[in-house]
Recover the amino acids of this structure.
């Protein structure tokens, strides 16, 4: 890495003596220089490149824009910015993933646990509507030039222009105007549906989603996750 010292030797110096300690104590004793070295090494190797990982059994491909790790008390926080994401066929423009309460658990392989992951991202409205239309619902959705959504019923001569937002796993639909057989529907007959969303995998939560023009910004919360990695192999890679 051109830093004048061996990352492998520094890592070994803290892994061996505390290999039998608990996860919280383990993370508290990790020298900041080690985590900085790992963070810098990963960033140097992967930032600007396309990476592929598996999340809940689904392949995710994206370009890593930035990556850093910092200490928060006895734990760590990692932050990664991804662009051009393909999540199992779903396209996202940009996502910032913040892993809170990161703990390292010694062993072979080493385990990493996170208390919560916050995902903040952006997706093109057209891409989002295409995903919904792929489900063959009763309505076909189109993006208007204004950024609003035009909904056409597949079997009835009913059209509507709507807007929508999500807050705390609840979808709120605002009907701007509607027509039936070409005739305008009076506003008093246009309900504003409030629909609970189906549960997300792994108890994830839809915190919010709002439309700004032709882009939808969203925030998701994913509860505790745990995964393992080969520390020796990681050191070779970086």
């Amino acid at each position: 890495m051109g830093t004048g010292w061996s990352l492998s030797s520094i890592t070994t110096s803290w892994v061996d003596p505390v290999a039998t300690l608990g996860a919280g104590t383990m993370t508290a004793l990790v020298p900041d220089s080690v985590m900085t070295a790992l963070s810098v090494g990963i960033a140097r190797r992967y930032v600007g490149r396309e990476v592929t990982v598996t999340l809940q059994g689904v392949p995710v491909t994206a370009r890593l824009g930035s990556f850093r790790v910092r200490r928060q008390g006895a734990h760590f926080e990692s932050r990664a910015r991804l662009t051009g994401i393909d999540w199992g066929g779903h396209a996202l423009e940009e996502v910032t993933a913040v892993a809170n309460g990161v703990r390292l658990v010694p062993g072979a392989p080493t385990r990493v646990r996170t208390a919560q992951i916050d995902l903040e991202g952006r997706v093109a409205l057209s891409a989002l509507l295409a995903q919904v239309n792929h489900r063959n619902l009763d309505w076909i959705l189109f993006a208007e030039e204004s950024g609003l959504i035009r909904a056409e019923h597949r079997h009835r001569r009913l059209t509507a222009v709507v807007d929508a937002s999500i807050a705390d796993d609840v979808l709120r639909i605002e009907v701007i105007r509607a027509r039936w057989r070409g005739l305008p529907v009076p506003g008093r007959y246009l309900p504003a549906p409030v629909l609970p969303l189906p549960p997300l995998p792994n108890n994830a939560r839809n915190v919010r989603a709002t439309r700004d023009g032709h882009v939808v910004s969203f925030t998701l919360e994913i509860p505790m996750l745990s995964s393992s990695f080969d520390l020796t192999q990681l050191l070779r890679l970086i």
Confidence is low (pLDDT under 50) at residues 1-26. The helical segments are 7-15, 23-29, 32-46, 125-133, 231-237. The CA atoms of residues 83 and 94 lie 4 Å apart. The first strand starts at residue 50 and ends at 55.
